[in-house]
């Protein structure tokens, strides 16, 4: 009888100990998840605050430069300078532990801990966090395909064609996707995107044909929107856009930028050289007839330049780009008037994609958001 009682007590204690350990682990995980989310949101808010201040600062400096008669391209764009300011937990914790008096933006004062003086032993942002920003003005504006201007249509189509003609993407135009479809060529895919966004009922690739009948008779039939993209996610509905192509297109296209020109101060070298420049080729010259070596030389130079003092493309303007094109041996192929229509060296500090990460223990959170710096508002946010 005594042994039975001892056995029962042991079983109860073991069960209690097991459940307690499970509850303890769940509590730790829940705590880490909350901390990771807090870290990511904190980094996101600080990055957004910096971008908003850069917009205000740029406006003031623009006025000052005009009054002083200074060259508007004489200094590094403010937006790029502000993007270079690091936002990570070590720096933020160091700042907040001193009282947090330095951050006073009204849009971000809803954090009750922002003014709390915390001890060095308990940093306010335990774990890791990081937030980066990318200008939407450095991307290709997909909704500009809606314009009926012959020049605009040609330039944007040339940029997309250069992007999609990469030999590494050939399989996407030869093999069916998981839905059993594929576009036969980059031109067909670009035409499908244009049919989605334009306001007419004619096929972009074959103006004499009715687009409704064309897409109705596909294996995966659908009706085109005939209106601007409200989200880049709509690209997944367009004929020929599989998962891999969507990932590439969505990283390099924007629905927020309302200009056909790429901002060279913030665009990566690949976007400038291999996608932008093909849209500036002189009439009558085929891209296939131009040697690849000058493009590669220009690309490598720009890549090397991005590492100089961490300035990226910030100091690049149209005059410098024109000189580099000549030195690379591309001057005979590039139309300088088109260059001004495809690129701009005027810095914009309005639309940004902000990516933030927070980590604590085994938990992590990632946030992707679109921030309008002039208004100080987020137009899109997704947390993972």
TrEMBL record:
Record bears the keyword Disulfide bond: no
Domain T2SS protein K first SAM-like: 142-256
SUPFAM superfamilies assigned to the protein according to its UniProt record, in alphabetical order: GspK insert domain-like
Residue numbers spanned by region Disordered: 103-122
Protein name as catalogued: Putative general secretory pathway protein K
Protein family: Belongs to the GSP K family.
GO CC terms, sorted: plasma membrane
Pfam families: T2SSK_1st
Locations listed in the record: Cell inner membrane
Transmembrane intervals: none
Classification of source organism: Bacteria, environmental samples
Source organism of the structure: uncultured marine bacterium MedDCM-OCT-S01-C143
Keyword vocabulary terms for this entry: Cell inner membrane, Cell membrane, Membrane, Protein transport, Transmembrane, Transmembrane helix, Transport
Alphabetized Gene3D superfamilies for the sequence: EpsJ-like
GO BP term, pick one: protein secretion
């Amino acid at each position: 009888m005594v042994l039975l009682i001892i056995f029962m007590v042991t079983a109860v204690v073991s069960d209690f100990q097991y459940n307690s350990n499970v509850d303890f682990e769940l509590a730790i995980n829940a705590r880490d998840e909350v901390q990771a989310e807090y870290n990511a949101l904190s980094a996101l808010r600080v990055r957004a605050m910096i971008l908003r201040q850069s917009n205000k600062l740029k406006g003031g400096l623009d006025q000052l430069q005009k009054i002083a008669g200074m060259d508007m391209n004489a200094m590094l764009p403010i937006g790029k300078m502000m993007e270079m300011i690091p936002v990570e937990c070590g720096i933020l914790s160091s700042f907040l532990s001193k009282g947090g008096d330095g951050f006073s933006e009204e849009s971000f004062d809803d954090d009750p801990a922002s003014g709390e003086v915390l001890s060095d032993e308990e940093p306010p942002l335990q774990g890791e966090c990081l937030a980066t920003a990318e200008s939407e003005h450095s991307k290709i504006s997909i909704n500009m395909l809606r314009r009926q201007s012959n020049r605009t249509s040609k330039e944007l189509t040339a940029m997309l064609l250069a992007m999609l003609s990469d030999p590494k993407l050939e399989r996407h135009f030869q093999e069916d996707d998981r839905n059993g479809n594929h576009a036969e060529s980059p031109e067909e895919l670009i035409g499908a995107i244009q049919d989605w966004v334009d306001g007419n009922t004619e096929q972009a690739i074959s103006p004499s044909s009715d687009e409704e009948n064309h897409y109705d008779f596909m294996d995966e039939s659908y009706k085109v929107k005939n209106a601007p993209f409200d989200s880049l996610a709509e690209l997944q509905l367009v004929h020929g856009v599989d998962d891999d192509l969507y990932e590439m297109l969505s990283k390099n296209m924007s629905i927020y930028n309302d200009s056909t020109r790429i901002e060279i101060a913030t665009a990566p070298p690949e976007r400038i050289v291999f996608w932008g420049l093909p849209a500036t080729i002189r009439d009558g010259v085929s891209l296939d007839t131009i040697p690849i070596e000058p493009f590669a030389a220009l690309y490598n130079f720009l890549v090397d330049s991005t590492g100089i003092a961490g300035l990226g493309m910030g100091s690049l303007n149209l005059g410098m780009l024109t000189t580099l094109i000549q030195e690379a041996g591309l001057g005979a192929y590039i139309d300088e008037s088109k260059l001004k229509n495809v690129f701009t060296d005027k810095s914009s500090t309005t639309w940004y994609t902000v990516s933030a990460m927070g980590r604590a223990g085994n938990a992590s959170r990632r946030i992707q958001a679109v921030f309008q710096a002039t208004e100080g508002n987020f137009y899109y946010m997704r947390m993972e």
